[in-house]
Write a structure and sequence with these properties.
Layout lengths: L7 H9 L1 H10 L7 H12 L6 E5 L5 H10 L2 E6 L2 H13 L6 E5 L12 E7 L8 H11 E14 L6 H11 L7 H10 L3 E7 L1 H17 L2 H7 L4 H19 L3 E9 L1
Parallel strand pairs: 1-2, 1-4, 2-3, 4-5
Antiparallel strand pairs: 5-7, 6-7
Helix pairs in contact: 1-2, 9-11
Length: about 260
């Protein structure tokens, strides 16, 4: 599948600017499909336990780590490449009185600044689609896991029905993804780096219903709020709505999806 020339600066532009605020508006602070309930499902499948050291790669606003600290009493560590997200994550952890339980670092997830064998769990939620090299990302995640540690992540992926080059380019361009991996592609990468795949799930129907929900929220409830974020630019708002409708149609056809993966070192 064709890759776009989108790097860290372009992704930082998304989450340093109005697009990041729009995603938070419709998806909440966790900025991923399904919010709290999907985090709970993945945490239970991963066997998250009290006291474990959990690294969230692409930790954004820190919502995932705050969820894990509050509900599973883990030690949280977050790495994100966008300064706005990094600064906000620290502020929100402080406000919720969990700052002493989470360490955030600003940096590139392709160069993880912790030692080999540090973590019980490496975690990611719907964000690795922004990473330019998924193979290197998983390799790094495997390296910092302890023996017997767990890799648990979800991501936006190419669906089992497959995307045409034109469809993939349109989605990637709108979303600022360098490229999307497929479910089978992630499975191969996980196995390549010495991890045992425990589960690989295609969550397409739920993914499609959530995109439909976001379109309804923007068109039926949050129009004023969204327009304020983008400077009351109605043409931009309509254009974004068209792209989201295109993605929803692809998702319903099984071409565009979301996957959840659990593996053990």
């Amino acid at each position: 599948m064709k890759r776009l020339n989108i790097g860290l600066k372009e992704v930082q532009g998304v989450y340093d600017g109005p697009e990041g605020k729009l995603w938070e508006l419709i998806m909440g602070e966790q900025i991923h499909i399904g919010g709290f309930m999907e985090s709970m499902v993945m945490a239970k499948k991963a066997g998250i336990k009290e006291g474990q050291k959990v690294l969230d790669l692409c930790s954004a606003l820190g919502g995932g780590l705050r969820f894990l600290v509050k509900n599973f009493k883990v030690q949280g560590f977050g790495l994100d490449g966008t300064k706005t997200m990094f600064d906000e994550a620290k502020k929100r952890a402080q406000a919720e009185k969990v700052a002493d339980k989470i360490e955030f670092k600003l940096g590139n997830v392709l160069d993880i600044p912790w030692s080999e064998g540090t973590f019980d769990v490496v975690w990611g939620e719907d964000a690795w689609c922004y990473v330019t090299d998924k193979d290197k990302l998983v390799q790094g995640a495997a390296k910092v896991l302890k023996k017997g540690g767990t890799l648990a992540f979800s991501d936006w992926i190419e669906g089992p029905a497959g995307l045409t080059e034109a469809e993939a380019e349109r989605v990637n361009k709108f979303m600022k993804f360098p490229y999307m991996e497929s479910g089978k592609g992630y499975e191969a990468i996980i196995k390549k780096h010495g991890l045992t795949l425990k589960s690989s799930e295609d969550l397409g129907p739920h993914f499609a219903s959530c995109i439909d929900l976001y379109i309804r929220m923007l068109s039926e409830q949050l129009t004023f709020d969204a327009l304020r974020i983008i400077g009351d630019n109605m043409e931009m708002f309509k254009g974004m709505g068209g792209e989201m409708a295109f993605m929803a149609d692809l998702a319903r056809k099984g071409k565009f999806s979301r996957g959840r993966f659990i593996a053990v070192k």
